[in-house]
Fold this sequence. Notes:
The protein is an alpha+beta fold. It folds into three domains: 8-54 and 139-224, Probable tRNA modification gtpase trme, domain 1 (Gyrase A, domain 2, 2-Layer Sandwich); 57-136, Alpha-Beta Plaits (2-Layer Sandwich), CATH 3.30.70; 291-397, Elongation Factor Tu (Ef-tu), domain 3. It contains nine helices and 20 strands. The strands form four sheets. A seven-stranded mixed β-sheet has the order 10-11-12-13-9-3-14. It has a six-stranded antiparallel barrel with strand order 15-18-17-16-19-20. A five-stranded antiparallel β-sheet has the order 5-6-7-4-8. A hairpin with a 2-residue loop joins strand 1 (19-23) and strand 2 (26-31). Helix 2 (37-45) crosses helix 7 and helix 5 (151-158) crosses helix 6 (205-216). The longest helix has 12 residues, at 205-216.
Amino acid sequence: MPIGTAFHPRTSALCESMSWRDWAGYFAVSTYEVHHEREYNAIRNAAALIDISPLFKYRVSGNDATRLVDRVITRDANKIAVGQVVYTHWCDGEGKVIDDGTVAHLGPDLYRWTAAEPNLRWISQNALGLDVKIEDISDRTAALALQGPTSRAILASCAETEVPVGSLKYFRVTPGRIGGIPVEISRTGYTGDLGYEVWVAAERAVELWDWLMQAGRPYDITPAGMLALDVARIEAGLILLDVDYVSAKKALVPSQKYTPYEIGLGRLVNLDKAPFVGHAALKREAKEGPKRQLVGVEVDWDDLERLYDEAGLPPQLPATASRVSVPLYRGGTQIGKATSTTWSPTLKKMIALGSVRSGMAEAGTGLDMELTVDHQRKHVRVAVTRLPFFDPPRKRA
């Protein structure tokens, strides 16, 4: 049975919808209100406060901490400066992705590593022979994502940091205090917008929540749940484990295993660094090219209207983002699948993340996507498009 995160005393009191989900054994709010519209609008137009404590978190320290990180992830850990955060992934020996997350270089020989799934055993197995200490700090470290255009102003009004919040660069982290509470603030997030993540000792979590909510009132701060986050991350072209790809450790058949090049992470593979887990296999694939690729998909609205009109119905938009995959076709032959689909309130389009054969991955390629209308399976025209769908300049400014 799930348990509450360190912020549960506050999130449970605010969750009017009583809509929860299980995230890594914790209660996570799906939507605070009956519908997630206001929470989504906070992400894009003001500031949203999201409890991300269920992430798995590991502290890696010791003389060989950098060697361990470099041995496991595909990026060059020797190039990660102190105070820098990188988004990365790690693979098995066949070059198939196990998980993705962030690695923050907090100090000399000190890293905080986040993951969606438990990875302590995998990291520890690869630490054989190294002078390194690996701690699971998931339970004792809480975290909040503060995302949206006014997030910087909120933090600037209440945070005392070594690096002023206004000067904190994209994917950088700084220690500091909020209301006297020791925290680490990273300019990271999962919304594709201007945003930050605040890391705090679990026993100080409720105090931190109260400080941020108080500081955020003049800036329309709004607690937001997973339904709003799901829409935002699809607009940003950000993949989700167990939805857009399957961990190599959980795959049941070879087709369920994905390489970084197949899920849009090829740019994060550094083949010139010291050998890492999966290096040889990825070097071969880099030469041959992937057989499938991650793409964006835009639904032809006129064609969607036609399908509903033929059924005597007005167009019906999905109330929430869909995590159910549906086939993609070219000339009647299935060439891939759409994995995450949503109506984008910002773009006023129905969009999806998809996995297609490499020959069909060029932007502008016309495809058909399966769509259920009045309980009947139909095909609606779609077009392949580049990711991300939404990429505002303020994200990096």
